[in-house]
C-alpha cells in the first residue's frame, strides 16, 4: 500500500486511545518485502562464549548422520539442538533501530518505513551435552589391528578411519574425540586410527615383558631403542605397544604402566570364565603379572565386579564400555545385572555419565532410590525392571 503520513499515524493512535506523549516520537511503519517468507531463515540462540567463537572467526559445526539427532560442536564442546517455539512471531528487519539508538539520534525523521525480510515462529536452542562417543569405539572395533602380518590388513576391504572421517561420523567436538582416542588407547597406524586387537596386544606385552625379564631391566626404565631393535622383527618400527602400556620417560627410556598391565592381564583371565572364585582369581592374577608388579582390585574399576553376596565370593567381567550411553538405559541395564548397588560399586559404571559439575550422588538421586541394608546405604531402581 501507499506509505503512511504522520497525520495518518496520529489518527490511528487516537482511534487506539493511545497518548502520543507516552510513546517515542519516531514511528516504524512495517510492510512485508516481496521475498519475506517463513522458513527462509533459521535463528540460533548462542551463549556468549559461542558467540565470541564465531566473532573470532572460528566455525561451529553441526554433526550427525540422517538417523541421528543433530548436535552442534565448537572446537571443544558439544551441544544438543532443540527447536523452541515462540508465541510471538519474530520479524527480521534489516537495519532496524532500537529505542536506545533512536533516542541518541534526536534528529531522525519521525516516520521510518521498514520492510520485513523474513519471519519465524521458532528458534534453535543449544544445551551443552555429553559428547556421543560410544560410536567411536564401535567403529574402531569393527576391524581391530592384528599386526602387520595379518591377512585382513593386507586386503583393502576393512574399514579405515582418518581423523577427518571420525570428525564427520562422531557427534563430538574435535578435542573431545582426540581425548577419547587416548582414553581407548587407539593408535595411528599408517594414517588411520586403529585399536589393537586384544590377543595381539597381549602378545606384544608378553614379548616386551619377556625381554625385560631376560635382560634384567627395571620396569621403570626400559631402554627404548634396544627394545625396538629386539622386537623389530616382530613389529613395524613404530611399535604400538608404546601407546597402551607404557609411559614415555623421554627419548631414551620408557616405563611400564603397572595398573594398565595388571588390568589387561585380569581381563585376559576373566574373559574365559563366567565367574571366577575371588581368592583363586587373586592368586592366579598375581602369578600372571610381570615380576615386581602388584595387583590390586582397584585396578579393575569399570572392568570387573566382585559379587560379595555369593559364597565363596566371586568376580566377573563387566566392562563399562559395553553398557548403554543413555542415562536411563544405563541404569536399567545396571539394575538388571544387580538389584541393589553400593555407591562404591556403582560409581565406576556411572562416572562417565556425569555432566559438567555434576556429581555421582546427584545422578543416583535422580535415577535410583536409596535404602539401608545391614547398615550400608544401597541403591535400587526407581522403576520396576522388566
Automatic annotation (TrEMBL):
Source organism (scientific name): Circaetus pectoralis
Family: Belongs to the DCC1 family.
InterPro entries: Dcc1
Pfam family, one: Dcc1
Entry protein name: Sister chromatid cohesion protein DCC1
Entry keywords, A to Z: DNA replication
Superkingdom of this protein's organism: Eukaryota
Signal sequence coordinates: none
Keyword Magnesium (UniProt): no
An individual GO BP term: DNA replication
Gene Ontology cellular component terms for the protein in this record: chromatin; chromosome, centromeric region; Ctf18 RFC-like complex
Encoding gene, per UniProt annotation: Dscc1
Keyword Cell inner membrane on entry: no
